[in-house]
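We store amino acids, tokens; thus:
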Amino acid sequence: MIAPRLAHLCLACCLTVFVCLGCSTSPGRPTADSIPVDPDNVADFLLLFQQNCSGCHGAEGNHGPALAIGDPVYLAVADDAILRKVITDGVAGTSMPPFAQSAGGMLTTKQIGVLVDGIRKRWGRPGTLAGVSPPPYSVAEPGDAARGAAVFATFCAACHGPEGKGTSRASSIVDGTFLALVTDQELRTLTIVGRPDLGAPDWRDNVPGRPMSFQEISDVVAWLAAQRPRLAGRPAPHATSLAGEKP
């Protein structure tokens, strides 16, 4: 009788060992959330957006220091190709860096696709501009700065002041630092879509019942661009020279 009992005991011990080895709470066994994830395989939109976009564009695509990409009007004007290009290559000379690995960033082509699709699905609203012909996102020919001064007086001065230097209703739009950090295209995009999260209307509502024409948009962008400092980063007006620059 000893041999069968010993055999049963050995079998019981083996089963116990196998159960312990398969138990996720066994000492020393890593848990699922402790195993590092390959950054290239992250495919969750919210996680990708939080880690790469929310710092500038806000947690829900708005109320950040940069353009509100969660604005349905913006997404109705900017198509997927535009979103993909900006995320991939960034915008040279601005605070928008390239995110594609091919351009020195951290994201794969697939992850950029996840961001583009997620932004569109989460914040896009089909029919936002139904019955309206939106201005083209970009144009080949620049506007006329001289005409743009009059356009600014009509559509923008009420909030930004007659010279664009700001009022209690809105900030300066001719600040040299601001203009040095944005491109003409960004000025155009802001003129078209506004900043609804900050109370700035789109091109249709600066003057009630009087939307801006496509030409007026181009002209006021040209006027704003003409206010940009000749040398970005030059010291305040009282300074006579740059550091290391001969008078």
Remarks:
- DSSP finds eleven helices and no strands in the chain.
- The longest helix spans residues 2-22.
- Residues 3 and 9 are 10 Å apart (CA to CA).
